[in-house]
């Protein structure tokens, strides 16, 4: 089965908004085993919508539309759909009850414009939008499926997750099973060379995708077939093999983040943490405190951007900085000791590096970074050489530091 | 003139990559006075490319393509373009010289695959890609313009800026002038109500667009006409009026950021800065240290995530926290005093708030945030009530704090 995604509205065409909806829908469809043939963004004009529908239905069996359903511009998209399907708008009581419910929640009065949102083409089945007033619509015609959804991301996502994807899955005799393994600290091409044999031996119905982000490479295994239990067993076995091959790089699966996993470990042990950051400039503390509830284990941080602060606040010895430099094994170790003592915590992360673009030398080029992690279970100090891009160096140093903290826990 | 953007390649269709290129191109075209009629993402298959070109040329005069020009999949896009235009690939010496130059820089040997990148359709003019090995291509046929560019964002952007946009501008008899004014601390609808009269009185050829981001609303004025000098004068006059209407909200223009502007002010005064952060968890320090050269004025930060750290490191009095709470005017003032004393700096930002989702009360709901800014020129302490979303509260608190620092400088 092939699908197309059509985005209706001017925001994307004038470059005001980046089309994240289509990427999300495309990923979900792919995970369901449905190939996306085309993604199209058009303006909310009658002829343009009719034309796009006509073209898409010549190529694909499933056409998912987002946008153009707000109360003020309502008429164009829904009436155009009526025209395309040769039908008319009718009042839908369930959609209206939902609108009433949402207005009661927000304490607003319903206007005639809002009442019109409950009118939908007679030939569609209504998809209840629990997060908004514009109902989703599911059409079937000549063996094709057309779905219209609002463009507000969280309304669209819940409609997709609750209504559309389950129905699409039911249409397919094929089952899909996938797992996404997250790795840190290894580049895509080096990773590919390590797991080359394993990858070559994957059966034809199990596909591997490399999904790289700065500092992180996600490996997604997708299997399709007719027996879901069998697929699960096969994929899980392959994932176990992968854990055996690259245990040092895997930190989690799916939606895991390093800061969440490291934080959960601390919580489990009852340990507290503080960070002493130079080149990362507070970014590690920012990642950790992005997690609700992190105050249970995170006490705080000293961003020691100048040597003065490293000495006066963290107690790094001036001789250490003079002899070894601010970016050195000795300095990050003293930074870690200092933050543990001053903040009275169990664990510390200390980072000092040259983020760039200036400050590099032949001996210590831009990207050189020392990281020290100390916990009651042991300590590790390690040198990294990242790249030349300031923002990416900060991100990679923070992820490497969180990964060292995660690994410091050993097997529990 | 109308344009279309066609993205070639599977990464977007499987949802692996979000299509930021098209949004950027669309914005640039709009600023040049060219309307984007459609954005299309397709796979790199011959029939699909031919079909998309055919459809686009039926609607628009300018067709910009990105992607599908890498050395390994080279042939499909370029040969498909040859088929579409009824021409053949020829070797281009300038393109080859550029490839040689880039390989010398990277210290690599040229392979036959790379040499093939210098072959381009005979009917196009080559656009030199100074950042990569795949040349851009400009075609003209039957009154239409077709441009093919690589999909790597920074290669595409320099090709657009250096070659494509100047040529497109030359085609149009119409001049365009625009300025983008950046505001902080005011919602879109409230802003709209304050400047309603001013907006209503804009002449028809000057358009206003509201471009909201979390914490920031950009106001873009675009004027089109035949006399560029006149347009500039008109827009500049309207912008001056705007500065008179909402001086308290405007912090900059174009690509300015609050952290850059506040940093430049400090540098000019020769002042140093440190931050004492509770709910923002190091995010302000992260924004400031994202700027290369910030070490000239930024000494560091204490992230005081627990009351203990506020007391032991920043010297906040236990009685203050007990009597007024950690989220209070008195606490942030003592945090600011403490960081100035401990870090021996001229200026301080101190923030304490309830980021959520937990920790709120009737008296101090989630989103309640106190910010104190102290400089040798004076001090200000202010309470903000943001929303319920943790990530957005952190972002809005950081922007509000940087804006208070910026304003503390007065008129220089």
Overview of the molecule:
The structure is a homodimer of 412-residue chains. By secondary structure, the first copy, chain A, is α/β, with parallel strands linked by helices. The first copy, chain A, folds into three domains: 2-171, Molybdenum Cofactor Biosythetic Enzyme, Chain A (3-Layer(aba) Sandwich); 175-253, Alpha-Beta Plaits; 258-407, Maf protein (Alpha-Beta Complex). The first copy, chain A, contains 16 helices and 17 strands. Chain A has helices at 10-13, 20-31, 46-57, 74-85, 93-106, 112-116, 153-171, 188-194, 196-200, 228-245, 258-269, 283-289, 307-312, 318-324, 329-343, 390-407; strands at residues 2-8, 35-42, 62-66, 89-91, 119-121, 125-127, 136-141, 144-149, 175-184, 206-213, 216-225, 250-253, 273-277, 298-304, 347-353, 368-375, 378-385. Chain A has a six-stranded mixed β-sheet with strand order 2-1-3-8-7-6, sandwiched between helices. In chain A, strands 14-13-15-16-17 form a five-stranded mixed β-sheet, with helices on both faces. A four-stranded antiparallel β-sheet of chain A has the order 10-11-9-12. In chain A, β6 and β7 (136-141) form a beta hairpin. Chain A starts with a strand and ends in a 5-residue tail after the last helix. The relative contact order of chain A is 0.08. Chains A and B meet through α2, β2, α3, β13 and α12 of A and α2, β2, α3, β13 and α12 of B. β14 (298-304) of chain A pairs antiparallel with β14 (298-304) of chain B, so a sheet runs across the interface.
């Amino acid at each position: 089965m092939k699908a197309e995604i059509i985005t209706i509205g001017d925001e994307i065409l004038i470059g005001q908004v980046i089309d994240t909806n289509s990427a999300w829908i495309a990923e979900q469809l792919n995970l369901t085993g449905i190939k996306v043939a085309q993604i199209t963004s058009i303006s909310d004009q009658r002829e343009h919508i009719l034309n796009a529908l006509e073209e898409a239905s010549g190529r694909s069996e499933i056409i998912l539309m987002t946008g153009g359903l707000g109360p003020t511009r309502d008429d164009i998209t829904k009436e155009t759909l009526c025209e395309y399907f040769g039908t008319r708008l009718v009042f839908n009581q369930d959609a209206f009850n939902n609108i009433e419910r949402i207005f009661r929640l927000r304490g607003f009065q319903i206007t005639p414009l809002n009442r019109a949102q409950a009118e939908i083409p007679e030939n569609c089945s209504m998809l209840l939008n629990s997060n908004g007033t514009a109902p989703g619509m599911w059409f079937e015609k000549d063996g094709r499926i057309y779905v219209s959804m609002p463009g507000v991301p969280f309304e669209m996502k819940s409609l997709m997750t609750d209504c559309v994807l389950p129905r699409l899955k039911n249409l397919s005799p094929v089952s899909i099973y996938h797992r996404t393994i997250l790795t840190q600290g290894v580049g895509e091409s080096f990773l590919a060379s390590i797991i080359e044999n394993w990858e070559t031996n994957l059966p034809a119905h199990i596909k591997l995708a490399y999904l790289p982000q700065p500092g992180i490479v996600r490996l997604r295994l997708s299997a399709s077939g007719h027996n879901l239990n069998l697929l699960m067993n096969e994929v899980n076995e392959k994932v176990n093999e992968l854990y055996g091959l690259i245990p040092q790089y895997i930190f989690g699966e799916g939606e895991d983040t390093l800061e969440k996993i490291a934080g959960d470990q601390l919580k489990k042990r009852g340990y507290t943490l503080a960070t002493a950051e130079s080149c990362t400039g507070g970014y590690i503390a920012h990642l950790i405190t992005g997690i609700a509830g992190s105050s249970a284990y995170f006490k705080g941080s000293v961003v020691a951007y100048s040597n003065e602060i490293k000495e006066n606040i963290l107690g790094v010895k001036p001789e250490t900085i003079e002899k070894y430099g601010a970016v050195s094994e000795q300095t990050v170790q003293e930074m870690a000791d200092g933050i543990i003592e001053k903040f009275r915590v169990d664990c510390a992360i200390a980072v000092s590096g040259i983020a760039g673009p200036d400050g590099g030398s032949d001996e210590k080029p831009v990207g050189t970074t020392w990281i020290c992690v100390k916990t009651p279970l042991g300590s590790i100090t390690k040198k990294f050489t990242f790249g030349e891009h300031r923002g990416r160096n900060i991100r990679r140093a923070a992820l490497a530091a969180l990964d060292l903290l995660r690994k410091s826990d050993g097997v529990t």
